[in-house]
Amino acid sequence: MRTQRQVVDYSLQRRAVLRDVRKGTIGTLEVCDASPYLRNAATYHGEPTDERCPICRRDNLTLVHYVYGEELKQSAGQARKLAELPVLAMTLREFQVFVVEVCRSCAWNHLIERYVLGRDGLSADDPSISEAMGLVSHRGEGRR
Ligand SMILES: [Zn+2]
Q1: Which helix (H) or strand (E) is 113 found in, with range?
Q2: Is the pLDDT of residue 134 over 80?
Q3: Which residues does 117 contact at the CB level (< 8 Å), separation at least 6?
Q4: Which of 4, 71, 78, 129 has its CA 20 to 30 A from that of 121?
Q5: Residue 56 Cα, ligand 1 centroid: separation in angstroms?
Q6: pLDDT reported for residue 2
């Protein structure tokens, strides 16, 4: 997505957890603890993937996108379909997205990445759009 920024990748942490599970220092019960809410979110708002669950290998992983930010008001903290995010990104100035992978069979879940979306990202990434929106005179003010 064009306004995506401040991406934080959690694949190292995920790999460390999976390594510990394989070694037996963490039990599968500890990592397969998706709440009923998260499992519901995976069912109704999740994005299917082709990746097999690393724990049970019975089901493919589903990605759930949680959105956070003041501008979201009462819908902050809710799961959104991936297709809804570009619309939100054009409507709101800034919000956080947390991407969680979930296995609907064994309840394995882990944070994959988080990033920021929203119109505020356009002024830095796409000068033509910031000009169109009359933001040119503000350019540079963000650098402190
Ligand atoms: Zn699984």
Answers
A1: strand 109-117
A2: no
A3: 1, 3, 4, 5, 85, 88, 89, 92, 94, 95, 97
A4: 78
A5: 4
A6: 84
Where along the chain do its domains lie? 5-138
State the distance from the centre of ligand 1 to the C-alpha of 60, rounded, in angstroms: 8
What's the one-letter identity of residue 132? Answer: A
Q: Is the pLDDT of residue 138 over 60?
A: no
Tell me the CA–centroid distance for residue 102 and ligand 1, in Å: 8
71-109 tens-digit pLDDT? 999 999 999 999 999 999 999 999 999 999 999 999 999
Residue 27 CA to ligand 1 center (angstroms) comes to: 14
- Contact between residue 63 and residue 112 where contact means Cβ atoms under 8 Å apart: yes
Ligand 1 midpoint to CA 109 (Å):
9
Handedness of CA 102, 14, 76, 86 (dihedral sign): negative
